[in-house]
Design a protein that fits this description.
Rossmann fold, 12 helices, alpha/beta, six-stranded parallel sheet, three-stranded mixed sheet, 324 residues
Amino acid sequence: MPTRIFVAGHQGMVGSALVRHLRARNDTELVTRSRSELDLLRQAEVDAFFRKEAIDQVYLAAAKVGGIQANSVYPAQFIYENLAIQCNLVHAAHQAGIQKILLLGSSCIYPRLASQPMRESALLTGPLEATNEPYAIAKIAGIKLCESYNREHGRDYRSVMPTNLYGPNDNFHPENSHVIPALLRRFHEAAREDAAEVVIWGSGKPMREFLHVDDMAAASVHVMDLPPDVWQAHTEPMLSHINVGTGIDCTIRELAETIAKVTGFGGNLAFDSSKPDGTPRKLLDVSRLEGLGWRSGISLEKGLQETYAWFLEHQSHFRGRGVA
């Protein structure tokens, strides 16, 4: 019998990558629902779904996500929606007897000034970055939710904490997106308009690590498939989460220069230091994951080229929103 897997958030960037990866296997049966079919913010709907469907595993990729500006403008939405989705899904899955869940989080769970590279044990050892604190707190609660059901009910609920993700199906909104899709869109428009300059938020000095979403999907399935004894042998006491990244970072300036090259923009790069930089550096320690047999395989430049190609192929979706 194939394993019936529910991918929550299958239409998003991460969820769609998981679906692509899992569909390539012959031992799984995927179950997906759009928001119109199943509203994860409504507990009664989630309870009814799990009572009806014989689900074996859950990948919890559904989330309210966005960049610095979106987090600043909509903090209540970010903390409420993410807390509600996690609580509804995890509890309903437990009540339905589902033993395995993989919750997808974010590296923003770690303190703003955590030692670099950040180990899993850095969780809750210092203040968070203020610009995305509501989202980070919701994701920390999700980790602790999984750990609590493991401790009290013997479940096998795991969490993966990826670094900054990018790739096909990303959000290319000009104001509410993350740094890579925002810059790809901005540089694309500047190149088409033969603009002399592109203005970039912040000083360009912060360092970031970026992971292609297809690598993220592969790592997630790898973690979910690990036998319990192997997983527990490589898990620090009381921790259910593991970092997923490349182990390599770059400055925002270097990122912008690479995106300019990928999009064919030949003008000037101007950095607006009056805008917030966010966390000075975010590099994950991925030694635990590498010890469990997985390593990233998509370089940043190759990943950016593939993402830009996807963006160009789907331009019609963005027309009317400033994309040439």
